[in-house]
Specification:
By secondary structure, the chain is mostly helical. The protein folds into two domains: 203 residues, Serine Threonine Protein Phosphatase 5, Tetratricopeptide repeat, CATH 1.25.40; 103 residues, Serine Threonine Protein Phosphatase 5, Tetratricopeptide repeat, CATH 1.25.40.10. 54% of the residues lie in helices and 0% in strands. The radius of gyration is 21 Å and the shape is elongated.
Length: 331
C-alpha cells in the first residue's frame, strides 16, 4: 500500500504518547470480545449439586423474572453461592452492573478463595473500572493448574488500564498460548506492543486478528489507527472505509496526520496534553476494540474528533492513560 510521505510517522523506539492521548474510546468494555460462543460470556456456568440443579431448572428464562427468582433465594440465604452468582448474572443482563457487583462483593466476604466467584467478581470489577479490586480478585481466580485464558486476558487488561503495557504483554502472551487465534487476545497484545513503542508488531497482530473471520469493526478501526500512527495514511483510510463512510474515514486520517505532526514536534511523550483543546480527538469517537457483548448506544461523533463507526463506539475518559485503556478487551 502507498504511504504518504508528507507527514512523519511515529517513531517505534519510544512510547507512543500520541496513542495514549487520542484513544478514549479505543479500549473495550471489560467483558467484550469477538469470536466467542455463548459459553464465553462474563459469568461462568454453574455446576450445582442435585438440589441446586433443581432450583436452577425451576428458574425463569426471562432475565427480569429470573432476577426476582434468585433475589428471593439469595435474600433468604445470602450464603447460597449459586444464588449469588445467578442473581448477579441476571442483574448484569438487565444492565444493573453495580448492583451485581455488590452481590458478588458480599459473596466474596464468605467465599474469599472460590475461584469461580473470583472470576466473575474480578471481571465485572474491571468492567466498572475498579482496577485495584479487579487485580486482587483476578489473582485469586487465576488457577495455574487449570489456566483460563479469559481470566489471564483480564489480568493483562487490568495492567493496561494502569498504563503498565509491558507488564500486560506477559499476561496477553500467556492468554495467546492458550487461545492463539482469538481476536480479543490478538487485539490486546497488538495494542500493548503499540503502546510500548512497537507499532509494527502491533500492526502484524491486528492484521492477523482482522483476517481471523470474526466480522467486527473494532479490530479494523484499531488497525486503521495503528497504520495512521506509522504514517501509512492511504492504507489507514482504506481500512477505515470498510466500516465508515468514505468521508468519515478520510476525516479521521486527516486528523491523525495533524496529530502525528504534533507528536513529532514534541520533545517527549510527556509534552502531549492529557486533554486536547475542544473535544478530545478520539475520546468518544473512534470505534473501540473487539466486542461480543451487546452493542452500546452510539455516541455522536464530535465535529472536532474522529468519526465513529456506525456499528459500535466506546466511552470517553478524562485522562490519556484511561483513554488508552479503553482500547483493550478483558474478555
Amino acid at each position: 500500500m502507498a504511504t504518504d510521505v508528507e507527514s512523519p510517522s511515529v517513531k517505534t523506539g519510544r512510547p507512543l504518547g500520541l496513542l495514549a492521548a487520542l484513544t478514549a474510546s479505543l479500549l473495550l468494555g471489560a467483558c467484550a470480545q469477538v469470536g466467542g460462543d455463548a459459553s464465553s460470556g462474563l459469568f461462568s456456568s454453574i455446576t450445582p449439586e442435585s438440589a441446586e440443579q433443581a432450583a436452577k431448572d425451576a428458574a425463569p428464562t426471562d432475565p427480569r423474572q429470573a432476577a426476582e427468582y434468585w433475589s428471593k433465594i439469595y435474600t433468604k440465604n445470602p450464603r447460597d453461592l449459586q444464588a449469588a452468582l445467578a442473581y448477579a448474572q441476571n442483574l448484569r443482563t438487565l444492565g444493573q452492573k453495580r448492583e451485581a457487583l455488590a452481590v458478588l462483593q458480599q459473596a466474596s466476604l464468605i467465599y474469599s478463595t472460590n475461584r469461580e466467584l473470583a472470576a466473575d467478581y474480578g471481571r465485572l470489577a474491571l468492567e466498572l473500572d475498579q482496577v485495584s479490586v479487579a487485580k486482587k480478585v483476578l489473582e485469586v481466580a487465576d488457577d495455574p493448574a487449570k489456566p483460563d485464558w479469559r481470566i489471564i486476558l483480564a489480568r493483562g487488561t487490568a495492567l493496561a488500564k494502569e498504563g503498565s503495557y509491558r507488564e500486560a504483554i506477559g499476561f496477553y502472551e500467556r492468554a495467546q498460548a492458550l487461545n492463539p487465534t482469538h481476536p480479543s487476545v490478538l487485539n490486546n497484545l497488538a495494542l500493548a506492543y503499540t503502546m510500548s513503542g512497537d507499532p509494527e508488531r502491533g500492526e502484524q497482530l491486528l492484521r492477523q486478528a482482522s483476517s481471523s473471520g470474526a466480522e467486527n469493526a473494532k479490530v479494523r478501526q484499531n488497525l486503521a489507527l495503528v497504520l495512521g500512527l506509522q504514517g501509512k495514511y492511504t492504507e489507514a483510510t482504506q481500512v477505515g472505509s470498510v466500516d465508515l463512510a468514505a468521508s468519515d474515514a478520510e476525516a479521521n486520517t486527516a486528523l491523525l496526520k495533524k496529530m502525528v505532526k504534533l507528536d513529532a514536534k514534541a520533545s517527549s511523550p510527556k509534552s502531549i496534553p492529557a486533554v486536547w483543546p475542544g473535544e478530545p480527538p478520539a475520546a468518544a469517537t473512534w470505534a473501540p476494540a473487539v466486542a461480543e457483548a451487546p452493542p452500546q448506544e452510539a455516541v455522536p461523533a464530535s465535529a472536532h474528533g474522529l468519526r465513529s463507526s456506525t456499528m459500535e463506539t466506546g466511552s470517553s475518559a478524562s485522562t490519556h492513560d484511561s483513554r488508552a485503556a479503553s482500547l483493550f478487551s478483558a474478555d
